[in-house]
Amino acid sequence: MAWKPSWITVRTDPSRRARIDDFDVRSARTRVAWMTRRTRPGVGFRLVEETARLTRIFRSVTVVSDNVPLAISKEIIRQMSKGFADLDFAAHKLLADTILRKTQPRIASFEECVLPVRVSLAKRLGVEEGNWSESAAVLSEIHFQPTTGSKSEYNLYKLEITLITAVACVFAGDLGNAESHINKTLPILWQIPEELRRNDLLHFYHASLAKILDQTGKFMDAATRYFEMHRLEQVALDQAVQLDKSRYVEWGMEEIIADDPPSIVRSAICLILAPSGSQRTRLLQNVYKGFRSKESPIFPLLEKIYLNRVLRAHEVRDIAPLLSPHHIEVRADGLSALQRAMMEHNIVSMSKVYENIGFAQLGALLGVSAVQAEKMAAKLISDGRLLGHIDQVDQYMYFASETEPMDAWEKQVVDVSLKLNSVVERIV
């Protein structure tokens, strides 16, 4: 006859008391082990019935209460959570939902033991069911408590789960919550000693952050993060090691860390879309020099931007297969992010060639109306990204040199003098 505890009694109703049958630490271990063992030939396997039985016990008996020792309740949950991977999804979700609902009133005491319950449920919701919205909701309910163990290991796990939560929000189309969760990761990262920061986790960190920044239109910051990914990949290549991406592939998040297109190409795309400025110029130089293969479809366009040359429409169309939908999505102003970036670049490039230009001619070169060309030029000047002024009466824009006229004249004098000296030396 199976051993039954006689000393655990709990109140399930004010009018009566109920005895927990077969439900202490020993019976929980035995039952979970029975649930998760493989079926042997000729032996029945009533997995669904057993899951339903455990669920009914959680529902009908106050297993989580002041009358049951906290250690026993926690151990029961821990033992049950170990068998979730072998359950079918419906049984897993039913049992996990019941545990989470029962522990919610005292979540501060149970947060540590229900953490694997939440993580395993969220993973299956996203990977198997494609329900990233509910997966993100389950992960968002995690509240990390101070630990008595290794603080560094705890922070590493905390960072990983927070990043996965942010990416799940991206997959669910909830960019607001994704940005909220990703903003929590930097303080966690600072708490981890530099020698314990794994390159694979840092790579996933920059990849997740870059994805969110890219999706929200912060292309300059996204380009910086993609370039950091490229740098970590080069370090791994130089050390003849491979970044471990298996953890994130298990979560179905391989597109975040995928090598197609490479991170250096993603950085170049975001730089092309980013507004001009000193930060963009510095990173553009690093990315341009970082290309090991000039056969990439994006390299000719990147080179023209790096050299401040005017771009043609057919050159822009060549990189279309590398772009994401939000890069070419038409916005409220009637232009996509790609179109606006190309037009702004061409205006800045023209300032290197022309001293002035009419808005009718500028609009014709950009493929927009004179009014749109004027508005775009005015914004570049007001943002400090272009030196010049606008004459609205004559409908002209006048470009200003980045150097003082006297400095330019002195430079020309020096150049002429050096050339004259070279000629004299050859004659003598």
Give me the number of helical elements.
21
Rg, nearest Å? 31 Å
Tell me the β content: under 5%
Overall shape: elongated
What structural category characterises the helix and strand content?
mainly alpha
Weakly predicted, low-confidence segments: 1-48
- How many strands in all? 5
Helix-strand string = EEHHHHHHHHHHHHHHHHHHEHHEEH
Characterize the largest beta sheet: strand count, sense, and whether it forms a barrel.
Answer: 3 strands, antiparallel
Residue share in helix: 55-70%
Strand order of the largest sheet: 3-5-4
Compute the separation of the termini in Å: 117 Å
Mean pLDDT: 79
Please give a handful of descriptors for the protein shown:
two-stranded antiparallel ribbon; Arc Repressor Mutant, subunit A; single chain; 21 helices; elongated; 3-stranded antiparallel β-sheet; 61% helix
Structural summary, described in words:
61% of the residues lie in helices and 5% in strands. With 428 residues, it is mainly alpha-helical. Strand 4 and strand 5 form a beta hairpin. The radius of gyration is 31 Å and the shape is elongated. Residues 1-48 have low confidence and may be disordered.
